Amino acid sequence: CKIRHYNFTVVLKNTTRLCATKPIVTVNKQFPGPTLYAREGDNVLVRVTNHVQYNVTIHWHGIRQLRTGWSDGPAYITQCPIQPGQNFLYNFTLTGQRGTLLWHAHISWLRSTMHGAIVILPKKGVPYPFPKPYKEKVIILGEWWKADTEAVVNQAMQTGLPPNISDAHTINGHAGPVSNCSSEGAYTLHVETGKTYLLRVVNAAVNDELFFKIAGHNLTVVEVDAAYTKPYKTDTLFLGPGQTTTSLLTADQGIGKYLIAISPFMDTIVAVDNLTAVGFLHYNHTLAFTPTTLTSIPPVNATSVTEVFCESLRSINSKEYPANVPLTIDHSLFFTIGVGINPCATCFNGSRAVAAINNVTFDMPTTALLQAHYYGISGVFTDDFPAKPLIPFNYTGAPPSSLQTMNGTRVYRLAYNSTVQLVIQGNSILAPESHPTHLHGFNFFVVGRGVGNFDPEKDPLKFNLADPVERNTISVPTAGWTAIRFRADNPGVWFFHCHLEVHTTWGLKMAFLVENGKGPNESLIPPPSDLPQC
Ligand code: C2O
What we know:
Largest sheet: 6 strands, mixed
Shape: globular
CATH class of the largest domain: Mainly Beta
CATH topology of the largest domain: Immunoglobulin-like
Bound molecules: CU-O-CU linkage
Number of strands: 33
Strand order of the largest sheet: 10-9-12-17-14-15
């Protein structure tokens, strides 16, 4: 195992997109940011130095951070922000994971421009559980705002109105010719006839779940969220923000130039940047004027495509890659999640959008929860997060007319190594929406999903406990539910939230507090000496 050193310098960079130039917050002047490469077992050290006027933190999305919660990155959950002029050394070891993940800023909406891929290769000498590709490519999907994204989110917080939607989607930073600013270029994947490529696709968008498609070609999914899957052949990928999908592409069409397209999914169109971004798959020896083959893009409300994709993924579950699904449950939790409207005296319309889990809208603390927990600082959080909704929930009856939320900085406490089953139910008060929900510090198994009300008697009988897919982010289906299981084997404080940033902003978030175990390697390590102070 090696030590990998990276320097991430946070700086402004003037960037031109959609025919206009604006300064954006970047890592190392790159957009998207640098790809972090390492092998399973490596120790990764990233020195983040802040040269902008904003507070920053970086989250290594999906990295387990076993006992190293100090390096997880969500602002005010595991750390105080790195202030202008300051730096912090993130220090973590890659354990039991290989594949593609992402890193991103985890404060305000800075992740719109501060994000990049993480590639975890298998240990030296360990092959992939699929045919060795000829080449590997990282493809990062994102969104672009003409306005400054910090201004967009501040407007939303101050007026209570939903923030502006993005002005374009991007593939490795480019919207492609659809933007009509053709000099800005398009992502192009150059391939050689007959060769197989490993595409590491990352959804780093802020607020949109996305479809990804290459005209005339199938993809074979082999890994999601840095956990291998049984091979799954499809013509369309579906990724919520924060999710990653690695698949094999065989360049089996001989010659030509084919469209690569991404487009958003939202089945009730509340507010979505409806634009498609395109790139090209280009065979070598193909002349530039070869016409592109058009691809059909799933419509924005293609719920059935998302269902087929989500239900087809399975973990490998072999001797080398076992699926250790918890079979007994210590904590059986039921979380309703959704967005609603609350009265707000100071807001534009006398009301504002709020989001909640179990009717609790999370208030961000001003001291990091992990520090408060470690040093026993009282008054920062309470550990009474409800195991089920405070207001009884029934989706098929009349849904409650408001979330009737209460505010609080509440955590749910778990003993070390206890097992959790969590059913996440969309409550659809404002509109039925799919929520890509992310748990920090763990991978979980997705044992079930369905539409309508979760039935606690019948639905568990259908759970897949043999080879459920293992992930860190899962799309809770529109007007439906998802059931996940995990083992609380990572002491610390772990954020759980919708990865649509607008919903996180509105309060769709909470945290789990996992206590130390009694064994020698079962406690959180002490905080690093350069941990930022609030
Ligand atoms: Cu990728 Cu808490 O986020």
